[in-house]
Amino acid sequence: MKVGDLVTHGERFIEEYGIEPDAVGIVLELDPEEIGDPEEALVLWNDSDLCNHSTWNLEVISESR
User: Fold this and answer.
1) How far apart are CA 57 and CA 3, in angstroms?
2) Which residues of 14-39 are buried (b: 16+ CB within 10 A; e: fewer)?
3) Which of 48, 65, 64, 55 is CA-nearest to residue 6?
4) Is pLDDT at 13 greater than 80 in this prediction?
5) N or C end of the chain: which has fewer CB within 10 A?
6) Torsion sign (Cα): 18, 61, 55, 44
7) Does the model's pTM come out above 0.85?
8) pLDDT (tens digit, 9 = 90+) per residue, 15-50?
């Protein structure tokens, strides 16, 4: 996963937390808290939410170049 990728919530995350399956977001930053955790991503969602997520809860649907 890298900055600019379009993502959605992973299947397990959707089932476990009841998240809308049609949410799409763009990865704005990796390791947004600057603690050396490349498995954390800052995502801007299509509903204007800005959230940190673990990358293992996300699925890439379109990779940036």
Assistant:
1) 16
2) beeeeeeeeeebbbeebebeeeeeee
3) 64
4) no
5) C
6) negative
7) no
8) 777 777 788 999 999 998 888 888 899 999 999 999
In whole angstroms, give the CA distance from residue 55 to residue 11: 13
Look at residue 41 in the predicted model and tell me its pLDDT. 95
pLDDT of 21 reads 74
Burial class (CB in 10 A: 0-12, 13-18, 19+), 45: middle
DSSP 8: E
Question: Which residue has 């379109």 as its token pair?
Answer: 62
What is the Cα–Cα distance from 31 to 59, expressed in whole angstroms?
17
User: Computed over its alpha carbons, how large is the radius of gyration of the chain?
Assistant: 11
